[in-house]
């Protein structure tokens, strides 16, 4: 069974807060879960580095709360169940349902949670996630903006949940 780091990228550029809470991407990783704490810390650090690098946002120094949880539910995707999640709120906090409870004045919020609705994500953030996904999964990191969704859908190590 694959483990998964689930990435939700949130931006204040999206006016509808309900939509903001749906901006999520799901990234499956082949990871060793023998030491779960080390795994989570590594995923968190790598994910923050990726988002900073590809969006130009400064996240690391502003993280005020980091929470961890494990998902054992299955999705309706043909890729089977997924396990671990890393929840990271940059400059804010997350309630029990995974919603942001504080604003991030520098322009966005980054939360790693469960996946949903990639068609509604701003293109610049989709590109950042696609590039990060390519690096995480060992795919070609030069995926082009015009076709990366279809390209990534062909790999069973990465997909978006509904």
Explain what the structure shows.
- The protein is α+β, with helices and mostly antiparallel strands and 162 residues long.
- The protein has one domain (3-153).
- The protein contains four helices and five strands, in the order E-H-E-H-E-E-E-H-H.
- It has a three-stranded antiparallel sheet with strand order 2-1-5, covered by helices on one side.
- The two termini are 20 Å apart.
- This is Phage gp6-like head-tail connector protein.
Short account of what is shown:
This protein has 162 residues and is α+β, with helices and mostly antiparallel strands. It contains four helices and five strands.
Task: Note the main sheet.
Answer: 3 strands, antiparallel
Could you name the ranges where pLDDT drops below 50 across 5 or more consecutive residues?
Answer: 1-40, 59-126, 132-162
Would you tell me the overall average pLDDT?
A: 37
Over all CA atoms, what is the radius of gyration?
A: 14 Å
H/I helix tally: 4
Helix content: 25-40%
Q: Give the topology string: H per helix, E per strand.
A: EHEHEEEHH
How many domain modules? Answer: 1
How much of the sequence lies in strands comes to: 15-25%
Task: Tell me, briefly, the overall form.
Answer: globular
Indicate the structural class.
alpha+beta
N-end to C-end Cα span: 20 Å
Please tally the β strands and state the result. 5
In order across it, which strands form the biggest sheet?
Answer: 2-1-5
Organism: Spirosoma arboris
Protein name: Phage gp6-like head-tail connector protein
């Amino acid at each position: 069974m694959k483990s998964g780091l689930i990435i939700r990228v949130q931006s204040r550029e999206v006016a509808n807060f309900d939509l903001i809470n749906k901006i999520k991407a799901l990234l499956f990783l082949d990871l060793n879960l023998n030491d779960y704490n080390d795994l989570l810390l590594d995923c968190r650090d790598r994910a923050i580095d990726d988002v900073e690098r590809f969006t130009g946002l400064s996240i690391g120094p502003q993280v005020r709360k980091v929470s961890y949880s494990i998902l054992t539910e299955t999705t309706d995707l043909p890729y089977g169940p997924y396990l671990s999640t890393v929840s990271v709120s940059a400059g804010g906090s997350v309630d029990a349902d995974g919603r942001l409870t504080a604003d991030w004045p520098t322009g966005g919020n980054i939360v790693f949670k469960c996946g949903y609705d990639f068609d509604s994500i701003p293109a610049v953030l989709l590109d950042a996630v696609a590039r990060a996904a390519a690096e995480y999964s060992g795919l070609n990191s030069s995926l082009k903006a015009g076709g990366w969704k279809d390209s990534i859908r062909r790999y069973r190590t990465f997909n978006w949940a509904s």
